[in-house]
Amino acid sequence: MTITPSDTARTMTWAVTLFSFTNEMHERTRSADDLVRLVADEHIASAVEVDAAQHFPSFPVISTEEITAFRRTIDETGLTPTMLGGYLDLRLDPRGPRTPEEEEDFLLGQVRAAAEMGFFAVRMGLGSVRAELRERILPELERRDIALLAEVQAGARPDAPAIDELRTHRERLGTDRLGFVFDSSLVMQELPPTWIRALRADGVPEEIISTAEALWRGTEAGGADRMTELIRPLDLPASAVRRLDMPFRRFGCTMVEDWDDLLDDVASVHLKYWDVDDTSGALTRQTSAVKAALVRHDYRGFVCSEWGGHDWLEPEEAPAVGMTRAHRAIFDSL
Asked: Residue 302, CB half-sphere, CA atoms under 13 Å: how many?
C-alpha cells in the first residue's frame, strides 16, 4: 500500500518492522512467521522488515528450513520483504575476536540468506562494518543484487566521521550496493510521555527526570556519564537505570534540516516512534517535518513504521497492531 491520501507521497510505500512486535514475540503465542501473517491479515502494511537475530532461531547461520518457511509465508501473504536486520558481533569469548575471514563468512551468510528470502538489503549499524570487510563482500552483493545499508539513528550526528568514510569508500569503489538508512529517532522533539510515566512509576524523582531532559537537550557531550553520577547514590530499580540511559543512546535531539545532506542519499527510512500519546503535538510535528523533508528530497522507497516503546509498555496496553495503525493514521493525516 502506498501512502495516502497526499499525491506528493505516492512514491513512498508503508512498511512495518517485526521489531514492533517484540512484546508479542516474547509472549510466544505466535511464531515469528505467524506474526508476519498477522501483518497481512490485519492489513497494517504491504511490506515487512525483520531482524535476523530476533526472527530466526538458527541465526547467525539461518537454516535452509527457516529460509524456505519464511519465503513460503511471504508468497502466501503477498507481502514485500524490505530489509533484513543484520549483525556483526565481536565474539567476546576465549577464542578471541573473529579473524577477517571469519567476519567475512559471518556477514556473507546473512547476505546470502537475505537474497534468498527476497530482501533488497541487509541493514547494519553505522560504523559496524569496516571498509576492508565491505570491499571483500562487495562482489557477492553485486552478484546477488542486494545492498548493504548503514542505519543512521539516535546517537549519531550529521558530521559523524562514519558517514563521510562510507561515502568516500563507496565513491572509490564505484558501487551503488552501499548506502544509508535514515531513522527518525534522530529528530525527536520531546521525550516520550509514556517513558516519563514509566520512570515515575519506578520512583524516579522529578528532579532527575528534569535533569535528564536538560542534558538530552543540551549540546555538551557526556550527558550519559553525568546522569550515571547523579543516580549512583539512589536506590533505583534496574529498569529505571536502564531507561535513564536511553536519552543519550536511543533518543535523538537534532533537527530534520540538519540531515538535509543525508536525506539526498538514503535508500530506506525508519519512522521510529515510542508511543502515540500526542497530547503535546510533538509526535505530529516530528512526523510532519520528516514527511515534508522526504517529499522535498523526492524520496522514493519504503517508510517503515518502527515502534520501540515495548521496553516499558506491555502488549495488553499497547498491542503492536493497534500502535502501527495509530502511527499510520498520524502519518496519513499530514
From this structure: 25
Q: Are 7 and 38 in contact (CB under 8 A)?
A: no
Position of cell 517529499? 295
Q: Cα separation of 152 and 158, whole Å?
A: 9
Nearest Cα to 303, choosing from 274, 276, 263?
A: 263
Q: E strands along the chain, which residues?
A: 12-17, 47-51, 80-85, 121-125, 147-152, 178-183, 268-273, 301-307
Strand partners, 80: 47
Residues 83 and 120 sit within 8 Å (Cβ to Cβ): yes
Sign, CA torsion 121/124/129/133: negative
* CB-based burial label for 143 (10 Å; 0-12, 13-18, 19+): exposed
- Determine the length of the chain: 334
Q: Are 108 and 100 in contact (CB under 8 A)?
A: no
- Our separate counts of H helices and E strands in the chain read 14, 8
- Name residue, grid cell 520512570: 199
CA 67 to chain centre: 22
CA dist 74 and 64 (Å) reads: 15
pTM of the model: 0.94
- Spatial separation of the C-alpha atoms in residues 244 and 203, rounded to whole Å: 12
Q: Among all chains, which residue has been given the C-alpha cell 510505500?
A: 13
Residue 215, judged by CB atoms within 10 A of its CB (0-12, 13-18, 19+), counts as: buried
Please give the chain's pLDDT, 334 residues, in tens. Answer: 665 544 446 789 999 999 999 999 999 999 999 999 999 999 999 999 999 999 999 999 999 999 999 999 999 999 999 999 999 977 667 778 888 899 999 999 999 999 999 999 999 999 999 999 999 999 999 999 999 999 999 989 999 999 999 999 999 999 999 999 999 999 999 999 999 999 999 999 999 999 999 999 987 788 999 999 999 999 999 999 999 999 999 999 999 999 999 999 999 999 999 999 999 999 999 999 999 999 999 999 999 999 999 999 999 999 999 999 999 999 999 8
